C-alpha cells in the first residue's frame, strides 16, 4: 500500500533527506524535481515548503510528512506527531533594536512584524501588549527601526539578528523538525502498519547515530575492570580469544562517552581497540 509522503524544501530538507538515505530509501530526481521517485519503500513523494506541510497532511492530501513545530502550531493543524526528531532546532524570539530599552517598549503601542501571525498574536496578547501586527513575507529582521518596533522571528544562532543591530529580548517558543501523520490515516490498519514499519527503521537509524561499536582485547586479569567500565546497551559481549589467554569484548557505547572512556579502557588494560560506526540499532 503506497504511502503519500510530503518532504520539506529549504532549511530542514538536508537532514531529512539524509535520514531517509540512512533508512535505505533513495530519492531520485534533480533539484528542480518536486516529485522525486522513491526506492526502498512504497512511497509517493512530493516536496513542498515546510509552511504548507501541516495543513496538507491535516487535509489528507498526504499521509505523512516532516515539518517544523512552529508551523504546526502556527497553522493550528490537527495532525499526529509520531516522532519528534529534533533536527534543525530554532527559537522563535522577540527582538528590538539593540539600543532600545525593553521595559520602555513594553509600555507603549508597538508595531510588530512577523511571518507568524498566530504565534505572534498569542504571545503579544498573553503579555498584554498594545500592538499592531504587520505580516512579513521573509527578511523580517530588516523592518526595525523604520518600519516596525519589534519582530517575532526564528533564529538558530542569532547571527542574522545581531547583523541587523537587533537584540533578543524574549523567547516565544522552541521548534524543531517533527514527523507527522494524518490522524485518519492512522485508523487504516494497512497504512498504520506501513507507518509503524517506517518508524521502526527510522528509530533504528536514530539509535545507531547515538552509539559506536567498540571492540577490544584484554587479559584475564583485566576483564572485570574493563567490563565494569563499558556502558553497553545491555551488557558487553565477551568471548575467549582463539588459542591464547584473554578475551575479546564488544559493546555498543554512546558516542558522548567515547572521549573519556578510551583513556580509561587503555589504563585498565584494553588493547587492539576498534571503533566502528553503527548504521542501525534496534
Automatic annotation (TrEMBL):
GO terms for cellular component: cytoplasm. Residues 49-203 form the ATP phosphoribosyltransferase catalytic domain. It comes from Pleionea litopenaei. PANTHER family: ATP PHOSPHORIBOSYLTRANSFERASE (PTHR21403:SF10), ATP PHOSPHORIBOSYLTRANSFERASE ATP-PRTASE (PTHR21403). It catalyses: 1-(5-phospho-beta-D-ribosyl)-ATP + diphosphate = 5-phospho-alpha-D-ribose 1-diphosphate + ATP. It is found in: Cytoplasm. It comes from the Bacteria. It holds the Pfam family HisG_C. Pathway: Amino-acid biosynthesis; L-histidine biosynthesis; L-histidine from 5-phospho-alpha-D-ribose 1-diphosphate: step 1/9. Keywords: Amino-acid biosynthesis, ATP-binding, Cytoplasm, Glycosyltransferase, Histidine biosynthesis, Magnesium, Metal-binding, Nucleotide-binding, Transferase. InterPro entries: ATP_PRibTrfase_cat, ATP_PRibTrfase_HisG, HisG_C, N-reg_PII-like_a/b, N-reg_PII/ATP_PRibTrfase_C. Residues 209-280 form the Histidine biosynthesis HisG C-terminal domain. The keyword ATP-binding applies. Its EC number is 2.4.2.17. Catalyzes the condensation of ATP and 5-phosphoribose 1-diphosphate to form N'-(5'-phosphoribosyl)-ATP (PR-ATP). Has a crucial role in the pathway because the rate of histidine biosynthesis seems to be controlled primarily by regulation of HisG enzymatic activity. GO terms for molecular function: ATP binding; ATP phosphoribosyltransferase activity; magnesium ion binding. The keyword Transferase applies. One of its GO terms (biological process) is L-histidine biosynthetic process. This is ATP phosphoribosyltransferase.
Amino acid at each position: 500500500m503506497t504511502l503519500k509522503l510530503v518532504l520539506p524544501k529549504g532549511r530542514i530538507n538536508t537532514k531529512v533527506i539524509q535520514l531517509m538515505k540512512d533508512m535505505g530509501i533513495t530519492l531520485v530526481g534533480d533539484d528542480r524535481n518536486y516529485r522525486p521517485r522513491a526506492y526502498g519503500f512504497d512511497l509517493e513523494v512530493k516536496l513542498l515548503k515546510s509552511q504548507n506541510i501541516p495543513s496538507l497532511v491535516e487535509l489528507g492530501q498526504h499521509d505523512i510528512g516532516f515539518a517544523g513545530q512552529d508551523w504546526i502550531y502556527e497553522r493550528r493543524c490537527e495532525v499526529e506527531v509520531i516522532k519528534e526528531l529534533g533536527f534543525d532546532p530554532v527559537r522563535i524570539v522577540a527582538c528590538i533594536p539593540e539600543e532600545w530599552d525593553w521595559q520602555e517598549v513594553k509600555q507603549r503601542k508597538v508595531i510588530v512584524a512577523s511571518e507568524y501571525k498566530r504565534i505572534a498574536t498569542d504571545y503579544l496578547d498573553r503579555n498584554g501588549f498594545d500592538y499592531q501586527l504587520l505580516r512579513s513575507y521573509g527578511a523580517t529582521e530588516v523592518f526595525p527601526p523604520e518600519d516596525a518596533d519589534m519582530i517575532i522571528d526564528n533564529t538558530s544562532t542569532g547571527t542574522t539578528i545581531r547583523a541587523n543591530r537587533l537584540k533578543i529580548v524574549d523567547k516565544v517558543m522552541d521548534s524543531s523538525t517533527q514527523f507527522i501523520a494524518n490522524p485518519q490515516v492512522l485508523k487504516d490498519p494497512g497504512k498504520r502498519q506501513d507507518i509503524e514499519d517506517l518508524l521502526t527503521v527510522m528509530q533504528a537509524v536514530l539509535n545507531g547515530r547515538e552509539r559506536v561499536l567498540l571492540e577490544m582485547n584484554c587479559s584475564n586479569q583485566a576483564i572485570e575492570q574493563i567490563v565494569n567500565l563499558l556502558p553497553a546497551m545491555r551488557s558487553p559481549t565477551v568471548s575467549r580469544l582463539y588459542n591464547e589467554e584473554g578475551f575479546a569484548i564488544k559493546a555498543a557505547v554512546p558516542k558522548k562517552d567515547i572521549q573519556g572512556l578510551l583513556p580509561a579502557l587503555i589504563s585498565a588494560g584494553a588493547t587492539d581497540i576498534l571503533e566502528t560506526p553503527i548504521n542501525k540499532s534496534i
